[in-house]
Amino acid sequence: MSAELKSGLVAYLELLARWNHKINLTSLPLAEPTDETFDRLVIEPLAAARHLPAPDCTIVDIGSGGGSPAIPLKLAAPGIRLRMVESKTRKAAFLREAVRHLNLGAVDVETARFEELLARPDMHEAHDVVTLRAVRIEARTLMTVQAFLKSQGRVFLFRANGTDSTLPPIVPPLAWDATYPLLESSGSHLLVLKRQKFTGAAGRT
């Protein structure tokens, strides 16, 4: 880990701890961080960053809350273009302060439900990756978020050990692409779905 990345992560956690006294951003302990705190907020996103399709890809993070995994992903891959979506006004205010405090470029914060953003034509098929964690995954959710993706774009689902059984059936245009371990000690993993390519009247390929 570079000194710059370490410094950025420390600054993020310190800011998160200060704001967490005012609003509930995370239930993980921050005053006296545990291994789980570091694993969930930092280590898992850093592990996931290795699987980004490109160093300058465009990411939309759904339900950003306290900023993880989105902000550690941005710190680990500074070239990405990031959009954080958070419906709660106070949490969105924290995200904007984190962007300012950490001097992050090419980052937008949307105070809206992700479904509402699809009323904007510029949001359709405009992203390489959608990331979701701590969001209830239903068939409707997957069908909605895939609309954000370019052809061959990917959905990154951060999964705790034993949660695969809660996933609904995956239907086209999404298909399973890969599963990567994040933390061996906890069994957490990254489930990657890919938006399949369509070729007009020829159908799906």
Tell me about this structure.
The chain is an alpha/beta fold and 205 residues long. It has one domain (3-202): Vaccinia Virus protein VP39 (Rossmann fold, 3-Layer(aba) Sandwich), CATH 3.40.50. It has six helices and seven strands; from the N terminus they run ααβαβαβαβαβββ. It has helices at 3-20, 35-49, 70-76, 89-101, 114-117, 139-145, and strands at residues 58-62, 81-85, 107-110, 127-132, 149-159, 174-183, 188-195. Strands 3-2-1-4-5-7-6 form a seven-stranded mixed sheet. A hairpin with a 4-residue loop joins strand 6 and strand 7 (188-195). The model is unreliable at 200-205 (pLDDT under 50).
Brief summary of the model shown:
By secondary structure, this protein is of the alpha/beta class. It contains 6 helices and 7 strands, in the order H-H-E-H-E-H-E-H-E-H-E-E-E.
Sequence-ordered SSE layout with sheet pairings:
Blueprint: H1 3-20, H2 35-49, E1 58-62, H3 70-76, E2 81-85, H4 89-101, E3 107-110, H5 114-117, E4 127-132, H6 139-145, E5 149-159, E6 174-183, E7 188-195
Parallel strand pairs: 1-2, 1-4, 2-3, 4-5
Antiparallel strand pairs: 5-7, 6-7
Which homologous superfamily in CATH is the superfamily? Vaccinia Virus protein VP39
Radius of gyration: 17 Å
What fraction, in percent, of the residue positions are helical? 25-40%
Query: Which word captures the global form?
Result: globular
Number of domains: 1
- Mean pLDDT across every amino acid position: 91
Succession of helices and strands:
HHEHEHEHEHEEE
Characterize the largest beta sheet: strand count, sense, and whether it forms a barrel: 7 strands, mixed
Predict the CATH topology: Rossmann fold
Strand order of the largest sheet: 3-2-1-4-5-7-6
Work out the helix count. 6
SS elements, strand count: 7
The secondary-structure class comes to: alpha/beta
Sheet-strand content, in percent, reads: 15-25%
Reading off the top of the CATH hierarchy, the class is best stated as Alpha Beta
Separation of termini?
40 Å
CATH architectural label: 3-Layer(aba) Sandwich
Low-pLDDT parts are 200-205
